[in-house]
Amino acid sequence: MSATASMERPASTGQEGRAALSAMAFVSDSTALARISADLFSLTLGKANIRDGAIDAALAIAEWPRDLDLLIVDLAGSADPIADAAALKTAVPGGCIVIAVGRINDVALYRDLTAVGFNDYLALPFAEGAMARAVDRAFELRERTGGPAPSVQSSIKDALPRTLAVLGARGGVGATTAAVAIAAMLGARLKEEVLLIDFDLHYGSLMLALDLEAIDALREALDQPDRIDALFIQQVAQKKSDYLYAMGAEEAPTSGFQARPHAAGDFLRSVHRRFRWIVADVPRGDPILQRQVIEASTDILLLTDLSLPGVRDAMRLQQLVHDVAPGAKLYIATGGAIEARRSAVKVADVERTLKHKVDCQIPADTVAALSAVNVGKPLPEAAPSSGIVKALRPLVAALDTPGGDGGSSAAPKAMSLFGNLGRFGRNLKRK
Ligand SMILES: Nc1ncnc2c1ncn2[C@@H]1O[C@H](COP(=O)(O)OP(=O)(O)OP(=O)(O)O)[C@@H](O)[C@H]1O
Ligand SMILES: [Mg+2]
Hints:
This protein is an alpha/beta fold. The chain is built from 19 helices and 13 strands. Adenosine-5'-triphosphate (ATP) binds near residues 174, 175, 177, 364 and 388.
């Protein structure tokens, strides 16, 4: 049966000549449900399978009709819509057009959904006929571009949320400076908004470095991550530039805070709904939060200075990364105030001890570091020609690859590491 004759919408272009569509919808909003039913009626000759439900119900379908042309799905109730969308897209037949509806009106969400292979996203409430137009548009686009989006699998990988945890092996090695610079460079490279989070709720210096206000709500959000919504993120994440946002707190020194189990992971998952890329400045003084952030990270940068205590602590943190985030990609960097040529510990010593190449050697550049602090801007903006920026560039390029190729955090067994350090330390003292 030809759909052309039965379609009453004169604006329809993409559907001409196509048989009646096989369509399903899972929608929990009653107004939207009525509008979608009306729009799908003519497209499907009244045969659309429309259910009161959302993406959860769609994900529960074990076997999809092989000839399914169109799926409309409500994102309501999903804690992680992008991950759910990616899972759903892989489950439905390859040629099926998938359109999401939801309450969040956010271009970042739209972009993430299309990156995992969804064809469109309509924010609720939408007008009568809007879904019919969206369906037309999707089919028309597919006809023009010839079939479903190429390499959905690689799009899914590209769109996966990424958290880079930046860990300083010792105090003052330049972890915060590096975290800010990397986030700024990554945002500019990807043309995508990147969020910096300072997890040192008491003594973090990230907001100060960017001349932004610390916000008390960060602690509350860590306590109750299920209460984080788009509005909260909009209020707490402060915009520094087109592609750089930051959040951090300034808890009173007397306020005790103990993160409940999985707090950081839950929090990061919620915030990833708005920001695909998060760069986390991880505190050393809070082992619980430190462990949780490492656990939830896809990428980890461990920064050490060229000192014996620095290398010892880098080894201990490397072991922690290996234990709690074995799938994360680990990068090692050297930095700090001691210049490489003047230090007793050499980069080769770090590599030998950690059994890991040094991915990035951040030079000491006090003038550039100071000027960044003085103007309250990321170093790449305040001092773009600094050697620090140059050294970070390959690292930023390495981060701009699809996630999931991790596994390089593998550390040799703790015993042999400590054995190495003992020998290494003794040799150093004899020098
Ligand atoms: N590569 C560098 N060369 C010279 N000075 C630097 C460099 N990186 C950072 N600094 C300066 O060193 C100081 C400490 O830097 P930063 O706050 O980034 O270190 P950190 O490791 O985060 O310290 P903390 O342990 O307090 O969190 C700052 O004054 C910063 O401007
Ligand atoms: Mg710091």
